[in-house]
Amino acid sequence: MNITVSGIVRTCLVAAAGVGIVVAAMHSQGALAVASTKPVDTATASANGPVRSSSLLCPGPELKGIKGVADLGVGVRVAAAAAPVRALTGSAPATAPGKLSLTQMPQGSLAPDVTSRGADLVGDLTTPNGVLVSGTESMAAGVAAAQSWLVPSGDQRSFGTAACGPPGAEFWIMAGGGAPGRQERLLLTNPGGNSVSVDVTLYGAKGAVASPNGKGIVVPAHGRTAFLLDSINGDLATPVVHVVADGGVVGAVVNDLWLDGTRAGGSDDALPTAAPSRDQVIPAVTVGGQSVLRVAVPGSNEAVVQARVLTAQGPRALPTGGVIRIDGGTVRDIDISALPGNAVGLQVRADVPIVAAAMVTRAVPGKPGDFAWTSSTPPITGVAGMPLADPAGALTPVRRFLSLTSSGDSAGVEVVTVDAKGVETSLRQTIGVDATAGVDVTFARSVWVHRVSGKGEVRAGVIAWLDDAQGRLITTTPLHDAALRTSTVGLREVAQ
Fold first, then answer.
1. DSSP-assigned letters across all residues of 176-211
2. Average pLDDT over every residue of 256-267
3. Does a structural domain hold residue 456?
4. Could you give the CA distance from residue 323 to residue 321 in angstroms, rounded to a whole number?
5. In 3D, which of 404, 407, 392 has the Cα closest to residue 448?
6. Which of 12, 40, 206, 377 is deepest in the core (most CB within 10 A)?
7. Are 308 and 435 in contact (CB under 8 A)?
8. Distance between CA atoms of 223 and 460, rounded to whole angstroms?
9. Rounded-to-integer distance, Cα 317 and Cα 339, Å
10. The whole model's pTM is what?
């Protein structure tokens, strides 16, 4: 399958010399104006319609595919689904028949295609390849996908998930630590027909770490490159990864694996944070042991950072570390272990742009542990969702909880779930001002969220866990907007 970069990126600009310009975007965009010294009266009207093609990237098996490093026998289960029409916020999908497919890059179907909305598409993968999730025509709008794995025992004991996302040219990812036995793998996937060069920079408590090992990492066309961050620096206690692609776009995920002495410390995937901004919100944080809020300042100026917790009863100050100063270009961890165990949101504000994420752990003394990373996300403007297929090897149903946070104002949301028989269920939920609410979605096969009232900025994430004799396994997946519509914006022709 030959996927061009222009068919993947969220916004592409196509110019036909002296004739006109068209902008195509997955979400409806604002009008675009071009300055002119001599305008010609040939302006065309703008229009928008349902997206007819959408794509997401999944990293594939995280613990395989690094040259010179032995593969570990952990595969993944990839699941995808297209949102029910009810959840599409009033947008109608394209009418032409379409399909949803999983392609093991560079080629090869991972599972039979599906053509019905709400039906989930599931495939298992053991080889070190990325996966392209593609929706066309009637199945293009509202596509979401995720991969998961479960290792119930041994050194890699863990339960993890990673949402599959759109590619981009720049990412900030927060994960990992400097403890013995901690190892971080960066997974880069390339959907395009040409190789892409990627530069990787690590940031820590003392600033950026310069290393030639992070420069010019090649990701082959329709391929994947796995990279040990230890080759840049393995001693950072609070690593933050900055990924910049040149010559194309890539997907990026960091796997954080911890062997705590002789016991498994757990593993999880960390997804890119929301773009640097002065207001970051992290959904679906559930403290139940040692936990940290990680904050980084990408720019050179010092940041005055204020963090608070968004609870079911509204905003509350952190027990400690609610207001701190962080030097430009550096990273700080704030201990949030004293927070109550209920699912909450974390809001982090500063006077300069920052990025943020949180890690929570589950561990019983003398037994294996596990942990989960949750990144800040942009607010949901259309519909966000996730297929909820259990990972391979799960002997009992995975417990799952949808955590919803509204910041800035209150919000009303509709939560639509689809069960194993394809039956849809709708629930309306009101979230207070700067507060968090939630819904148990244990027996659903997919869940979808969209705002129906209020002005609050809504964010959401799914907390999943399993209990056995050794303790609790946990993972958290933040939800992101799915593609719904395209815009064709008419522009005024410019004559010289």
1. ---STTEEEEEEEEE-SSS-EEEEEEEEETTEEE--
2. 90
3. yes
4. 5
5. 404
6. 377
7. no
8. 31
9. 10
10. 0.89
Rounded-to-5 percentages of helix, strand, coil across the chain: 5, 55, 45
Determine the Cα–Cα distance for residues 201 and 445; give it in Å rounded to an integer.
38
Place of tokens 């961050």: 229
Residue 291 CA to residue 371 CA, distance in Å, equals 9
User: Residue 13 domain-assigned?
Assistant: no
Q: Which amino acid is at 466?
A: L
Integer-rounded Cα radius of gyration of the chain: 22
| Strand ranges of the sheet holding 471-478, from the earlier edge strand across to the other edge | 435-440, 399-407, 457-468, 471-478
**pLDDT tens digit string along 409-459?**
999 999 999 999 999 999 999 999 999 999 999 999 999 999 999 999 999
323's CB contacts (< 8 A; 6+ apart) are 304, 305, 306, 307
In a domain, 494, yes or no: no
Quote the number of domains for the chain: 1
Letter for the amino acid at 155?
D
Question: Cα dist. 132→129, 190, 222, 374 in Å?
Answer: 10, 9, 9, 23
Q: Is residue 191 part of a domain?
A: yes
Residue 64, CB-side half-sphere exposure with 13 Å CA sphere: 14
In the predicted structure, residue 39 carries a pLDDT above the cut 80: no
* Helix, coil or strand: residue 276: coil
Beta-bridge partner residues of 163 = 146
- Full domain range(s) for residue 171: 53-478
Tokens of 333: 């961890």
Residue 69: how many other CB atoms lie within 10 Å: 14
Omega before residue 106 within 30° of 0, cis: yes
